[in-house]
Amino acid sequence: MAESNHRKNPLKMVEIVGKNLLTSVLENLVQNDVVKFEEEDKEKFNNAEWRDKRWVFVDALQRNPAMAGHVLTEKILNVKSKSHDVNAAEPAESTDVLKLCPREEFLRLSTEMADEIYPIKERNNRTRQALIICNTKFEHLALRYGADFDISGMKGLLEDLGYAVSVEEKLTARDMESVLRAFADRQEHSSSDSTFLVLMSHGTPDGICGTMHSDKTPDVLPYETIYQIFNSCNCRGLRDKPKVIIIQACRGGSPGGVWVRDSPAALEDNSFQSQKLDEDAISLRHKEKDFIIFFSSTPKPQHHSLP
Questions:
Q1: CA 36, CA 31: separation in Å to the nearest integer?
Q2: Three-state DSSP class for 198?
Q3: By the number of CB atoms within 10 A of the CB, which of 22, 40, 172, 253 ranks highest?
Q4: Which one, of 271, 281, 197, 272, lies nearest residue 236 by Cα?
């Protein structure tokens, strides 16, 4: 009976496939020690029923929220902490914090790899800013279940990384653009070394949906508008600084395409074309540069959050 209902509801079927795929990814992270859980948590995860593994994983992360931050900084910045350095003084305090590399190692890498590493400002002088925009309820679209957990988890992670986090919810496309422009104009960016933008909503191939979106009356903020707001011309405070954009949204309404694992080639998004160079008083710079952009899905497929 349940199988028959799933066949009648293809979105439910995609949701089930998505949950199974996510569980497989989480299991791979744990088994390969990408996420280093305590032995008790790892054993609980390994012994859990397949359908419960996602929640065991989330529960373990909630007890150790810094773990997600450690994985992010290590994988993106490719800087590993020297946890077994016999010459390093081990603190007696709790290890439930982000563990950064020793200052001497940081200074050495900053000098040796100056052309490859973005400059990092001293903690007492920097004013890192981050923005989370999350739409949960819509006039014409489905409720996004679990969005509160996404906000809480991401806010905690960014705060652990030293960012002052602003959260905005229930926004139309016009409201999102206004919030982004105000955020880009913040004076704090001048004394910051980077920023994070996290946008969570329903989406289309070209943008992220506002709360009033429908097929008849689109309410979409184009991704190109986001890039334009934060480019080198319009956001001087973040010029030559990394701008990490995380987008958790659909990029279309074609279910199933994302599950094809042996596709000969990934779909290419040709919307991001080479940009002309803009000349300022000192040098030539690309308009849209220093962006790192993460999408929760490839172009076309729908995105499904865990309920």
A1: 9
A2: strand
A3: 172
A4: 281
Strand pairing partners for 279? 284
Q: Centre a 10 Å sphere on the Cβ of residue 162 and count the other Cβ atoms it contains.
A: 16
Q: Is the pLDDT of residue 228 over 90?
A: yes
- What long-range pairs does 39-43 form, CB within 8 A, spacing at least 24? none
Rounded mean pLDDT, 263-287: 41
Distance CA(228)–CA(141), nearest Å, equals 27
Pairing of strands 284-286, 277-279: antiparallel
Query: What does the angle CA 73 – CA 78 – CA 82 come to, to the nearest 5 degrees?
Result: 85
Q: Is 263 helix (H, G, I), strand (E, B) or coil?
A: coil
Q: Exactly one of 70, 189, 202, 304 is catalytic; which is it?
A: 202
- What size, in residues, is the chain? 307
Task: Return d(Cα 221, Cα 218) in angstroms, integer.
Answer: 10
pLDDT tier at 220, thresholds 50, 70, 90: very high
- Residue 14 pLDDT: 61
Most distant CA pair in the chain, distance: 70
Catalytic residue (one of 213, 235, 250, 304): 250
Tokens for 100, please give them: 């950064």
CA distance 103 to 93: 18
Q: Is 25 exposed, middle or buried (CB count within 10 Å of its CB: 0-12, 13-18, 19+)?
A: exposed
pTM of the model: 0.55
For residue 189, indicate whether it is catalytic: no
- On the question of pLDDT at 168 being above 90, the answer is yes
202 tagged catalytic: yes
Considering the chain, what is the average pLDDT of its residues? 74
Secondary structure (3-state) at 297: coil
Model pLDDT for residues 127-149, shown as the tens digit of each residue: 999 999 999 999 999 998 888 89
Q: What percent of the chain has pLDDT over 90?
A: 35
3-state secondary structure (DSSP) of residue 200 = strand
- Cα–Cα dist 286/243, whole Å: 14
